[in-house]
């Protein structure tokens, strides 16, 4: 593990929670198996990550780079917690935000080709301390490609925060600096993570059902 800090590890045996125990939008109840990570737990873990980021990157201006679209919820909540720390402690970090949009997935499979399909001009990152905020590291290919791309713009420092990291034999071995949860090799949706653009409008992170995959297939 490249990161020195532990994260919450969700074991392969973890079954999650029955959907009936939580509030799920009616339009998704037949498309999901289980609630895997409830929204409240995501927020509590994110609050702690904000503290760790402040500790490691504090003292310098940070450019927080949101990887769209999947990273937008984590990005917004993480920045809210960093802002709360900035308001309430003696030390504070000025922060600006940037956005990049990447696409590599169709259905639940990586296409193997990572495309930058929008976002800000990356030359603004030259000489800056950059915090990349991503939803999930699966094989790690997307992040490795993005890090290579950023290198061309000579940032002063680059750190990566990912809400989730998947335990998968397809991993290229990449591990981010800050990780919320390590999850089994299952396709998860919700909290802005999508399946062909669906399920971003779901608060909890859930496992999609086979019928859900079929219904929203591209
Ligand atoms: P990687 O290049 O294989 O690491 O894939 C990373 C990207 O794939 C993420 O930014 C997501 O957009 C997408 N992805 C991978 N696994 C999942 C998943 O379980 N749910 C939703 N999106 C996923």
Automatic annotation (TrEMBL):
Keywords: Cytoplasm, Glycosyltransferase, Magnesium, Metal-binding, Nucleotide-binding, Purine salvage, Transferase
Entry-linked CDD domains: PRTases_typeI
Biological processes annotated in GO: GMP salvage; guanine salvage; hypoxanthine metabolic process; IMP salvage; purine ribonucleoside salvage
Assigned protein family: Belongs to the purine/pyrimidine phosphoribosyltransferase family.
Function in brief: Converts guanine to guanosine monophosphate, and hypoxanthine to inosine monophosphate. Transfers the 5-phosphoribosyl group from 5-phosphoribosylpyrophosphate onto the purine. Plays a central role in the generation of purine nucleotides through the purine salvage pathway.
Cofactor requirement: Mg(2+)
Protein's name according to its UniProt entry: Hypoxanthine phosphoribosyltransferase
Organism: Scleropages formosus
Gene this protein is translated from: HPRT1
Domain Phosphoribosyltransferase: 41-195
EC number of this enzyme: 2.4.2.8
NCBIfam families: HGPRTase
Primary location: cytoplasm
Location(s), subcellular: Cytoplasm
Catalytic reaction equation(s): IMP + diphosphate = hypoxanthine + 5-phospho-alpha-D-ribose 1-diphosphate; GMP + diphosphate = guanine + 5-phospho-alpha-D-ribose 1-diphosphate
Subunit structure of this chain's protein: Homotetramer.
Molecular function GO labels: hypoxanthine phosphoribosyltransferase activity; magnesium ion binding; nucleotide binding
Pathway given in the UniProt record: Purine metabolism; IMP biosynthesis via salvage pathway; IMP from hypoxanthine: step 1/1
GO cellular component: cytosol
């Amino acid at each position: 593990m490249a990161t020195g800090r532990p994260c919450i590890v969700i074991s392969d045996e973890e079954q999650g929670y029955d959907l009936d125990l939580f509030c799920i939008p009616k339009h998704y109840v037949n498309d999901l198996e289980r609630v895997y990570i409830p929204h409240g737990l995501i927020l509590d873990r994110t609050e702690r990550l904000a503290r760790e980021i402040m500790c490691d990157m504090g003292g310098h201006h940070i450019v927080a780079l949101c990887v769209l679209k999947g990273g937008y919820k984590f990005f917004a909540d993480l920045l809210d917690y960093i802002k709360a720390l900035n308001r309430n402690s003696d030390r504070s970090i000025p922060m600006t935000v940037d956005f990049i949009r990447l696409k590599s997935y169709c259905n639940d499979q990586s296409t193997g080709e990572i495309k930058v399909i929008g976002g800000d001009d990356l030359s603004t990152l030259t000489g800056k301390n950059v915090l990349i905020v991503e939803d999930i590291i699966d094989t790690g290919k997307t992040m490795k490609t993005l890090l290579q791309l950023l290198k061309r713009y000579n940032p002063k420092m680059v750190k990566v925060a990912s809400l989730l990291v998947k335990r998968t034999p397809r991993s290229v071995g990449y591990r981010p600096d800050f990780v919320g949860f390590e999850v089994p090799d299952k396709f998860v949706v919700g909290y802005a993570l999508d399946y062909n653009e669906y399920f971003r409008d779901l608060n909890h992170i859930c496992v999609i059902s086979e019928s859900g995959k079929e219904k929203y297939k591209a």
